[in-house]
Amino acid sequence: MRSTFTLLALLATLAVLVAPAATAQRTEAAHGCVRGNELWFRTADGVKLVGHRFGGLRPGTKPVVVLAHMSNGSLCEWLPEARRLAARGIWVFAFDFRGHGFSQGTQRYGRLGLDVAAAVKAARGLGARKVVIAGASLGGIAVVVAGATITPAVSGVAAISAPATIAGRLNALPFAPRLRVPTLYLSSRDDQNAPYDFAADAQRLYDATGSTAKRLELEDGALHGVFLVEGLARVRSLLEAFVRNPAAVATG
C-alpha cells in the first residue's frame, strides 16, 4: 500500500506546477467523481468557477473548510477527505481552479489567489461564518497568497506540500509575512522534485509567516499533497483538528 501511495505521489509531483496553459469552457459541471450540490460562482476578475458542497447545501453552524486542489487536477482529488470530513460534521467546499476541471478560464497561476478568495466569498454567501482554507501543492501556495489578502480574514490557512515559489509564475514568500491568522504547514521530509524541495519550502514559508500562531509538521516519507493526507491517519486527524480549532492546533 505504501509503495502505491509513493508511486501516485511521485506521478503527481512530476506533473505539479509545470503544465502549459489550458482553457476550460464547460458551462455545466459533470465530475465523474461526484454529482449534485454543485455551486457556480465568479472571481473578482469575472471568471466562472465551480465547486461542490459536501455536508449539505448550506453550512449552517458547522465548521467550514474550502479545499484547493493540486496542479492539473480538480476538486475530485479531495473526494475521500471531503467525504470523511463531511461525515464528521464539517461543511466542505471543494472547487476547481480556473482552467482546471469544469471551471472556465485559462490557467493563470498569478490569479489563483483570486480563485480561493472567490470560493471563500461563495461559502460566506451561503452563511459560513468561520472559514478555514486548505490547499495541496499548487493549492497550498494559492491558499498562502489568498490567506494574506482575503478580507474579512479567514479563520486559518493550511498549506500541504506547498512550494514557496513557482519561478516566474507565483511567489508566496512576499505574502507569508502578511499572514495574521493561524497557519499550518504540512509536508513529507523526502518530497522532492527538482527544482522543488517541498519540506525545505515548508520551512521557508513557516519562517516567513507573520502569524504568531503557526505550526510546521514534517512527516517521514515522500507522500505529496492529497496523497499525504490520504496516506497518513495522523495528517488527517491534524487537518481535521485544525479546521475545528485553528488557533489551538497552530499553537499546540
SSE string, helices as H and strands as E? HEEEEHEEHEHEEEEEEHEHHH
The percent range for helix content is 25-40%
Domain count = 1
Major beta sheet, specifics?
8 strands, mixed
Give the CATH H-level superfamily: Alpha/Beta hydrolase fold, catalytic domain
Please give the alpha-carbon distance between the first and last residues: 31 Å
Radius of gyration: 16 Å
For the record, the CATH architecture stands as 3-Layer(aba) Sandwich
Low-confidence stretches: 1-27
Strand content: 15-25%
CATH class: Alpha Beta
Q: Give the beta-strand count.
A: 14
Global outline? globular
CATH fold assignment: Rossmann fold
Placed side by side, the strands forming the largest sheet appear as: 2-3-5-4-7-8-11-14
Which structural class do the helices and strands define? alpha/beta
Quote the average pLDDT: 90
* Total of helices: 8
